[in-house]
Automatic annotation (TrEMBL):
Lineage of the species this protein comes from: Bacteria, Pseudomonadati, Pseudomonadota, Alphaproteobacteria, Rhodospirillales
Role according to the record: Responsible for synthesis of pseudouridine from uracil.
Keyword Nucleotide-binding: no
Reactions it catalyzes: a uridine in RNA = a pseudouridine in RNA; uridine(1911/1915/1917) in 23S rRNA = pseudouridine(1911/1915/1917) in 23S rRNA
Organism, scientific name: Niveispirillum lacus
Protein name: Pseudouridine synthase
Active-site residue numbers: 161
């Protein structure tokens, strides 16, 4: 209670967020929009002008380009809600997504690994990691549901595409967030993906070195091969099985962490990932195969140094829509070895 006997609301706190591996080189205002889409441009400009939003403790401008591992200071943000109608003076309240008990239980059932510092989640295909325009429900908004016995919410240290399933690492405290981010930035994390490609890559094992940049397309922003102005991107692949020349079961290892890297690279060599209509259009689909037009890219395994020593090694099972494709093509889903050990 305050001196007037009125109840106070919960105290707001200053947050610090780490710039993830695949957020490097984006403008601060665009990064802010990804994380806090409810805050308008004018409000952000005021926060920057008054020094309330800072990067690595220093004042920054909206067009500041971010670097992986930097920290962004987030002050208590103003509540955002529709303006009250005339004659109503009700206090504005933030619009928060509501999650059903079923959704909460389903998210917690996705936890593959948990200790005092780290959670590894089996992210479902179709779940966005962070919000955007018109995207009310996303993992970032649900992280409070994964606190379990910790005092604070877990923190994102990397991302997966909305339509990619599999291993996603969360830090349960600031110490773990710093160490895990360093591991992703320093390429100490090994991320092995499974995919089905339309067609069979030749040769059956190889490395793709193609720089990636952004372009504006009719459907919005997308990535493309850009050897002149793009960022260096390197991916390894190996064909584990194939169904004649129609499709292949491929293991992928992105040595860099560019946005949509594996999708752009596999399309660039003429064997797009099954279901990836964004980058390959109709070429991403196979006649006669009822795959529900979902993308067949799965973050199968993550091997990363534990923040306090040792190694975390977690494998995510294939999601149901990908199991159907494996059955259709007669591929084996029991392979457990790391196909890239010889490249260490």
């Amino acid at each position: 209670m305050n001196d007037a006997g009125e109840a106070r609301g919960p105290a707001k706190i200053v947050e610090t967020k780490l710039v993830a591996e695949d957020e490097a080189d984006i403008r601060l205002d665009r990064w802010f929009k990804r994380h806090y889409p409810q805050v308008g441009h004018g409000v952000l400009q005021k926060l920057l002008r008054t020094g309330q939003v800072r990067v690595d403790g220093k004042r920054a401008d909206a067009n500041t380009r971010l670097i992986t591992g930097q920290t962004v200071r987030i002050p208590p943000l103003p509540d955002v809600a529709p303006a009250p109608t005339e004659g109503h003076e009700a206090a504005a309240k933030p619009a928060k997504p509501l999650f059903s008990d079923k959704e909460v239980a389903a998210l917690r059932a996705c936890v593959l690994y948990r200790d005092a510092d780290v959670i590894v989640l089996d992210k479902p295909a179709g779940m966005a990691v962070q919000g955007g325009t018109g995207q009310a429900k996303h993992l970032d908004a649900m992280l409070d549901l994964l606190k379990f016995d910790a005092p604070g919410r877990p923190k994102l240290v990397h991302r997966l595409d909305k339509d990619t399933s599999g291993c996603l690492v969360l830090a349960r405290n600031a110490f773990a967030a710093t160490r895990l981010t360093e591991s992703f930035r320093g390429r100490d994390a090994r991320k092995i993906y499974w995919a089905i490609t339309v067609g069979v890559p030749e040769p059956h094992q190889g490395r793709i070195d193609l720089s990636i940049g952004k372009e504006m397309a009719a459907g919005g922003e997308r990535m493309m091969v850009d050897e002149r102005n793009g960022q260096r991107a390197q991916s390894y692949y190996t064909v584990l099985e194939h169904a004649h020349r129609k499709a292949a079961f491929v293991a992928l290892w992105p040595r860099t962490g560019r946005t949509h890297q594996l999708r752009v690279h596999m399309n660039a060599i003429g064997t797009p990932i099954l279901g990836d209509g964004k980058y390959a259009g109709q070429k991403a689909f196979i006649d006669g195969a009822d795959m529900k037009r979902q993308m067949h890219l799965h973050a199968r395994r993550i091997i990363i140094p534990h923040p306090r020593g040792g190694t975390i090694d977690v494998t995510a099972p294939l999601p149901e829509h990908m199991k159907g494709a494996w059955d259709y093509f007669g591929f084996s889903a029991n392979l457990k070895e790391d196909p890239f050990l010889a490249l260490d």
